[in-house]
Amino acid sequence: MVVKLGYLTRYSEDELKRASSIGFDGLEVHAKSWPDDVLQSADKRKEAANEAKALCAKYGVTITAIASYQAGNIPAADRIATFKTVADLCVQMGVGVITTLTGGDPELGPKENVKLWAETFREVAKVAESSGLKIAFENWPGCGLVPPIKSSTFGFNPPAWEMMFNEVDSPALGLEFDPSHLVWQWCDYIEVARRFGPRIHHVHLKDTEIREGVLAENGFFSGGWWRYRIPGFGLVDWPGFFSVLREVGFDGGTAIEHEDGVFSGDRWEEGLRLGYNFLRPLIIKG
What we know:
Layout: E1 4-9, H1 13-22, E2 26-30, H2 36-39, H3 42-59, E3 62-67, H4 76-93, E4 97-100, H5 110-131, E5 134-138, H6 158-167, E6 173-177, H7 179-183, H8 189-195, E7 200-205, E8 207-210, H9 212-218, E9 226-229, H10 238-247, E10 253-256, H11 268-279
Parallel strand pairs: 1-2, 1-10, 2-3, 3-4, 4-5, 5-6, 6-7, 7-10
Antiparallel strand pairs: 8-9
Helix pairs in contact: 1-3, 3-4, 4-5, 5-6, 8-10
């Protein structure tokens, strides 16, 4: 089983150089790293892909996924067009996964949102299958906890995933599994990973710290009682989590999603290096 350790960032030669110097062997990069005129032109996509493949080979770093994160209620035709463009870029670059969000109308419930989601992803699944690609939905809740609670993306918990994959039963559709979002929902992320193992197409590596004093003083709906951290600074049982990934046969890319406010600004790379040092023993280089 070969698993790549990377982080989420914008694509550039400087980031490839940084990743290689630290020891990472993967990157998840944003589709918006490339200007619209590049993404919308087949010739320019091919040129950009050839350049990226040459630079990845130079620095020994694999792009494990291209991220096209869109939240909210977006017309199906617009999203389908975007995914076709990103899918072509992936094929040109030899990248096997597009990471994304479900999107959703915050005024509707999960069942209604699944129907809207299917209008886009029934077609996107066909594109992915024909291109040999996987689509991985990050389980980001897209909302705070201070009422009124409304989310711009609905696919953040196991009941929603069940509805999604029942509605569009394609092996191309799966998850960008992020345990940090499940921690503060009080889900058993290890058992959930075991249950949805075949659907895990990419992994986000982010931790969650529970601030017990704030929670006790202000309650669940106050907000501010949890925060995202670099792996190793929160509650996630990373050895247990990777044990389950091995158990279910996960063979793909992982990416630190660095949203740790402690290591922000000038300390951003310090946090990234700490995350790398913590996780590297759990992920043997292939």
